[in-house]
Design goal:
Strand content: under 5%
Number of strands: 0
Shape: flat
Oligomer: single chain
Organism: Desmophyllum pertusum
Protein name: Cilia and flagella associated protein 46
Keywords: Cell projection, Cilium, Flagellum
Radius of gyration: 27 Å
InterPro entries: CFAP46 (IPR039586)
Order of helices and strands: HHHHHHHHHHHHH
Structural class: mainly alpha
Largest sheet: none
Number of helices: 13
Amino acid sequence: MHVLDGESNTKDPSTGKGPPTALGRLAGRAKQFEKGVSKAAGHLKRLGDENDQERVRIWADLAKTSSQTTGQTFFAVIVYYLYSSALVQLLRTEAVQLADKPVPPEDTIKLRPKRYGEQLVNFDDMPEWVSYCDWISSLSNEVIHSFQRAAEFGVELKEPWLVCNAAVYLWNYTTHMLSQGRHKEVIPIYSPVLEAMKLTGHAGETVLLCQMCNAIAQGFMQPWIPALPPPTAPATPSKDKSEKAEKTKGRQSGKGTKGGHQKGRYRQFVVDPEATPYFEASIRCDRVCIEHNKWSRDQESCANQYPPPSDHFMGVL
């Protein structure tokens, strides 16, 4: 009940009188949630070990798992799954995805506390907004840590499916980061889970393993690869020049336009020597995918979908 009370609407804590502001409500939610969670922690401390087994079993039953594995460690994994998923839903009620920063609301006079008046303000300098952002960040960190902790318990129990479940949760909740090109940010998120999968196996989730290896590898390389130059519109050739170029290309290839070596398939660039360890880490990461696959028919097709960059980047290094 303390935690539920922590998610209720609150008054503006920054002003003692007058109606609450929109920005004050955001800070109030953060303060009230932390207050409610701290009360819940004190309540559990006062309970001590009273009915601890029963409380753990109730949490485990909520997961509706059909597994026959028993023991407190297994139940702890289920609790971590539930807890993390609940926090993700709380983030979504705040219109924030996992590991994202909240978007500042539109600056209006009604939004600001009265002490700012009509002056222009920077949200990053407003304690109410800073408090709210810190709370959102702490929720994301708690979600990531809980799923990583669940993977550690999976290693302890030697249950690959528990580790893979943690990996699936993290992957599904962070796909927006990959679509935004934030591969560097997923390295500390995926790496502990990938290490756990290396210890227990990937339970046949070959595609998941390759996807995570590929994402981490791109994260290591991304900061060191120069940005592509903006595309330039090619000049429109005349009809006579176009036909002549087409015939010349056909004679060079021997098979019309379909033959011959395609130039420009790989773009060459010079990499800073300081990037060498990062490219080597990228290569090692993608080799994990190969080493954990025994090149069955399905695994080979997956490996072709995410090829290792070793042949391409060894020449650069």
